[in-house]
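Sample intake sheet
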Amino acid sequence: MARSGAATAYSAAIISQSDYLRSQGGFLTDAATARNLNAQAADQEMRNSITWINTYFERRRLNREYRAAEHPGYLEKEELRNKQYRRLLNTSPKTILDGDLTDDLNWMLRDLLAHSSYSLFMPDRSDSLLTSPANSPLDQAERHHLRMAEKASGGKSLVFRADKAQLLETRWPMALRDDRFSQAREHFESARDAALGELRASRKLQHDTEKRLMSAVDALSDELLAAYPRDRLVHSPPVFLEYLAAKRYIQSLAVGAYRLIQTQAEGAFDDSYRFRGDTVAALLQHMLNKGLEFAPPEPGDEATYRHLFGVVRALYLQAVPDSPLRQ
């Protein structure tokens, strides 16, 4: 600021002191403004860092959600599959009846096990399946047409009919009924009876008995290959189908024999797997108690499986709390 007039030493000192004080005040004001700007910058930097972290994890979350929607995990797939199956079971049972009912029966059996409660098979309870109007009797012929299995890992299982629980029971397919297989059939049945008799007597198979049983299965397979050379199979589709049915049957005998040898199964000699009840609900109770599953039907068993499917479906929809009929 310009000044006019003469200045004395005293006035000059006063002016200089005022300029100093004014400058000092400006410095303090600028310093306060700088501290405020620094604080705002630090605050913004911290907010930015938090926003960056939130953005990073939000992007990861969204990525997981979209990936899960496109490629669901095992539990999500099972939940979706079960929901779709229950819907199909409720609305379109005719679609299921068009194919093999074994997997469908076992699906309902496993879901019943998962939802079973102490009252499910108590006859004095109003919600018991044993006294349900949906329950249906099973006569002797129907019990014979039902095949059950002691399910094991690796697809190995002991298969038997519900009314007898006779392991490795033989119902020879057409190809193996030929006279040229008579000796191999007798050899297998003799080895099987000897093995089961030994299990009943001592609850343990000797090594020679095990070898005899597996050798009998091998003899059947060798005889089948000799009876159906490649040239014969190539030129006749019906003959090939005969051969294929016999081959699969021998494979099932091999699996059952191996499972019997591997486990020395108590079910082979204590008769505990035999179903002695007379209703479908009692059959389900027996299978759940013993840990059994349904085995695929053989030719002639299909009608019984269709009847069984209808009754099991009705009992299942009654017993499972979140069944489609209750939604």
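Comment: The first strand starts at residue 147 and ends at 151. The radius of gyration is 41 Å.
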